[in-house]
Amino acid sequence: GSINNANFSAPADGISGTMRMFEGENNAGSSFRIDDPIAIKGSVTVGEADFGTPISSTAVTGTIVRAIDGSGNPNFGCTAIVNGERVNGNIALIDRGECFFERKARNAADVGAIGVIICNFEPSANGMTGADTIPDPGIPVVMIGSNDCAKILMHIDQGVTATFQRVDLGGPARRDISFDNGVIAHEYGHGLSLRSTGGPSISGCLSNAEQMGEGWSDYFALVTSTMPGQDGSEARGVGTFGFGQPGDGPGIRRFPYSTDKNINPEVYDDIIGQQAPHPIGEVWNSILWDMYWAFVEQDGYDEDFIHGTGGNNKAIQLVFDGMRMQSCNPGFVDGRDAILQADQLRYDAANQCLIWKAFADRGLGFNADQGDKDNANDGTMSFEMPPSCIKELVIKQTVTPNINPGSPINVEINVINQKDINQTNVVMTYDIPQGTTLMSDPEGFDFEIVGSQLKVTLGDMEPGASADIAFSLSTDPENGSVILFSDDGEDRNISEAKWESKIFDGTTDWFLETLGEGAHSGTNAWWAEAIGVPNDFALESLDGILLEGDNPVLRFYHWYKTEAGADGGIVQVKESGTATWKRVEEKIFKNKYRGKIAYSTFVLPNLEAFWGQSDGYVDTYIDLSEWKDKFVDIRFRFAEDATVADDGEWRVDDIEVIDMVNYDGLSCASSDEGDNVCARAVARGTIVEDRSTSTIQIGAEQFRFEASPNPVRDVVQLKFKSEKQRPILISVFNTQGQELSRSLTKLSSGTSNVRLDLSTYQAGIYFVKINVENKIITKRLILQP
Questions:
Q1: Model's pTM, two decimal places?
Q2: Measured distance CA(121)–CA(101) in Å, rounded
C-alpha cells in the first residue's frame, strides 16, 4: 500500500536499522508535460475533466498564458476573458474558485484557447465534473496541484510551453525503487542524521517542525553519485527513476537541485506554509548543495570519497561533523551554526566566508532568525554576510526618520575599514539635500563645503578602524508633505462614510472598533479578526482618491498578530473605475510585508503579506506614483485559513495618502586604494510631516492642530488634540486679510474633528486662524476648482 515511497527506521546505536523500499508509479506515460524551460521540464500529475476534448495520442502544444477576466478577481476566469489576444492559440492558466470548472474553460475557449490548466489551491490534482447548463468548451482541460502551478507561474513571464498528449512508452506501470541507488543512499542518510543528531543513543531528535532530515538524505543521495567533470549548475533530481523521469527531472521534490537559481530558486522563506518534512528538507539541501559546489570550486574534486582531500571531501565531512555537533531537534540556524563550528574545529576556520556565502545566498545569512524551531513559519530571512567576510571599505548612514517642517535632521555616518590592509587618505562626502543647510558641524574632523556637498577628511584608516561622523541639517519650515486623504477613525460618521467592508469568503467583517489604548492614536481603529475558519474580507475606500503632487504615498499605522504564514493581510490598489486590483509588494519602502503566505489563504500565487507579530504599531509607506494624477481606490484585505483556530487580528489606524516630501542625501567614502562605496539611509531618508500640522505649547501641554486635505476642493477637516475641554475660535481669511467666516467651537478632551465647508468660495489661497487661549495658529489653505 506504500506506492511511491521508501523509508528507514533508525533506533539508537546498537540496534539494527530497517530500510523498506516500495514501488513507484511510472508516470512516463502521463497525459500532460512541460516542454520548456528545463527547470520545470517533465511530466506533471494532472486531474482530467470529464468534459472538453479527451486527451489523445495527438499532441496539443502551446505556450501557457495567464487568462485574465474583467472581474475583481481576474485570475478565476469566471467572466469574459479580457486578454483574449494573448490567450488565442495558447494554453490558458486559470485559478480554481468562484465558479464552475466548465465555465472557466468555456470562457477561455471563447477567445481561442487550445487548452486549459486549472490551478488548484491545494497540492492535489483532482478530476473535474462539468455542468449541464454550460456549453462544452471542446478543448482539453486538466487540473494541476498548487506546487506545480507555482513552478509554472515562476517562469511564465519568460515563456512556458506544454503539451497535452497521452503517450504510452511501454514498460511496466510501476518500477522497483530499489534500482535507484540515489533513493537507497537517501534512506541510509536518515540513519546517519537520526543517530548523529543529539548523540548516537537518541534517535528521536528530528521530530520538530523545522527539522532538516529530508535535506541531509537528499544531500547524501547527490554527493555519492557525482562524477568528475560535472557542474553544480546541472539539474539533478532525487527519486526520478521510480516515476520514469530523466535524471534532470524534479523527482520527489518541487524543483531539481542546482546552483543555478533559474532552475532551483528556493530560499529560506520557501519553508513557510509547507508541511514537514519533505518541502522543509529540500530547502535545506538546496543550501548544502550550493556549499558543496563552492568547496569543489575552491579546492577541486577528488574521486576518492574515503581518503580524498578535495573540496567535495571537505563539504561532506563538515555536514557529518555538523550533524554530530548540533543540538536535539535543530532549526535551520542551528544547523548552519553547527557547520560553521565544525569548520572552526576541523579546518581552523579556513572556510568561514565560503560557508556563510552559501547560506546567505539563499536567505540564511548573518541576521537570519529561525524563531521557534517547532514552527517552520516564523523564521526571518537575511541575505547579509557577517562583517568579517566583507573585506572592503564600508559606509552606513542613519538619519532622523520623521520630522515636522522646519525641524532639524540629525545625520550619523559610519565608515569602517573591514579590509586586511590600511586604507590611505579616506574621504567621506555627503550630498546635502536641496532645501537643507548644514546646521551643526561634524565635530572632531576636518571638513569643507564644496557647492552642495559636505567633504570630511578621515585620513588613513588601519584594518578594523572606524569613524563616526555626526552633524545636523536645518530644514525649510514651509516645505512639508500635503495630506490628500486622511482617516484617523475618531469621528465614526466621517470614517464610516469613507470605507465599506466586502466579504469574499466567510462571514466576518471589518469593524471600526473603540480599542482605547489599543489604537495608534485616539481610541478608535479599523479591526479585522481571525476566528479560526476560512474568511476573506476587505476594507475598501468608497470614493476615488486623487493623487496630486509629485510624490503620492500611502501611509498607515498597523498592529498585527496572526498565525504565521497562513493568516494575514495585504494592501491592494487600483485605478478608480477599473476592475483589476494590483499588488504592491514592490512599492512598499518602509516596514514591508513579513513574507510569503500560503497560496490557499488568498488563492493568489507567490503572495506576500503581513503576518506573524508586528510587536506593536508600525508605520508602513507605499509608493503610489504609478497612479500619479489619477483617482485610485485602496483596500486592506485580510484572510485566514482553517488550519489553526487562532485568535489573530489586524488593526489599521491613521490612514493617510500624502504628497510626500523627504530629504535623502547620498554619502560616499573613497580611498587612495581605489575604493568608492556609497550608502543612503533606509526608507528614503527623512520624511517630513504635513505642513498643515502645527503644535504649540500651552503651559505643560502640547496642543496639536491639523488641516487636511490641503490642497482642498470643498471640505477641509480640522483635527485637534487637546488634553482638556476648551473653546476655540476658528476664522477664515482671504489673501487681502478680509475675515470671511468666524465660528466658536468647544473642543472635547482628546481628539476632536471640525468640518469646514469651503465649497462656496472661489478657487485660491485662504488662511484659517485658530485662536486658543489667546494663542494663534495660522495655516494656509489652497482651494482648488
A1: 0.78
A2: 14
